[in-house]
């Protein structure tokens, strides 16, 4: 609900409401056994909450710098805005991309687009998994929509770089491969986490995002 404000021009920050941590649409334990409750609780109530809090702090400092005409401080705050703003955007999408009733394969227009752009669902799944496994350090694997070309596209983003703000692709499905997303359960074996997460992907949400961005 607050993520839409993040894409507003920074000049609009003078009059804004503080960002808030969105509620999860399911319980912390709802994604078990694929993602356990302890991970979900820490990930949502600690990690995502920290991005929200730090984003609010950075925006407040930016507002003060704008009022003073202090361009140097405005520039120095860009990394914090990008990191924490990206963390808030990414996780707000991520929670809705998951569902205890998820898994399987998408239907309708999204499935047709996946077949058109990747050859088959199996090929798409293999490519996004490999891309996500291959992210060096922390980051995200994404399925996005290239509006100019009218096609689906995969991309990896480092750290909390937001997909649309850094690549222009509209985010449809994000897979968080920061260690805090899986380490407590899967230790250092990221491929096992990636194999499991397909069981809770909310294809209704991804399909809805696809339909919206095509309008």
From TrEMBL:
Essential cofactor(s): Mn(2+)
Domain spans labelled Manganese/iron superoxide dismutase C-terminal: 106-209
Entry-linked PROSITE patterns: SOD_MN
Matching InterPro entries: Fe/Mn_Superoxide_Dismutase, Mn/Fe_SOD, Mn/Fe_SOD_BS, Mn/Fe_SOD_C, Mn/Fe_SOD_N, Mn/Fe_SOD_N_sf, SOD_C_sf
EC top class, as a word: oxidoreductase
EC number annotated for this UniProt entry: 1.15.1.1
Domain Manganese/iron superoxide dismutase N-terminal: 18-99
Keywords (A to Z) from UniProt: Manganese, Metal-binding, Mitochondrion, Nitration, Oxidoreductase
Superkingdom per UniProt: Eukaryota
Catalysis: reaction(s): 2 superoxide + 2 H(+) = H2O2 + O2
Chain sites annotated for binding Mn(2+): 43, 91, 176, 180
Protein's cellular compartments: Mitochondrion matrix
UniProt-recorded Gene Ontology molecular function terms: manganese ion binding; superoxide dismutase activity
Function: Destroys superoxide anion radicals which are normally produced within the cells and which are toxic to biological systems.
Subunit structure: Homotetramer.
Family classification: Belongs to the iron/manganese superoxide dismutase family.
Name assigned to this protein: Superoxide dismutase
Species per Swiss-Prot/TrEMBL record: Formicarius rufipectus
Higher taxonomy: Eukaryota, Metazoa, Chordata, Craniata, Vertebrata
Name of the gene this protein is made from: Sod2
């Amino acid at each position: 609900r607050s993520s839409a404000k993040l894409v507003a021009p920074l000049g609009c920050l003078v009059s804004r409401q503080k960002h808030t941590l969105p509620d999860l649409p399911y319980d912390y334990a709802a994604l078990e056994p694929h993602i356990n409750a302890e991970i979900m609780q820490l990930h949502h109530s600690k990690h995502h909450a920290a991005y929200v809090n730090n984003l609010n702090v950075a925006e407040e400092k930016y507002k003060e710098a704008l009022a003073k005409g202090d361009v140097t401080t405005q520039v120095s705050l860009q990394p914090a805005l990008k990191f924490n703003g990206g963390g808030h955007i990414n996780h707000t999408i991520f929670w809705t991309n998951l569902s205890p009733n998820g898994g399987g394969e998408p239907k309708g227009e999204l499935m047709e687009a996946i077949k058109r752009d990747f050859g088959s669902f199996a090929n798409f799944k293999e490519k996004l998994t490999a891309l996500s496994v291959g992210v060096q350090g922390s980051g995200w694997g994404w399925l996005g929509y290239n509006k100019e070309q009218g096609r689906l596209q995969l991309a990896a983003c480092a750290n909390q770089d937001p997909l649309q703000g850094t690549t222009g692709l509209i985010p449809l499905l994000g897979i968080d491969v920061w260690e805090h997303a899986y380490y407590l359960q899967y230790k250092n074996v990221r491929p096992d986490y990636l194999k499991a997460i397909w069981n809770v992907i909310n294809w209704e949400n991804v399909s809805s995002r696809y339909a919206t961005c095509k309008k």
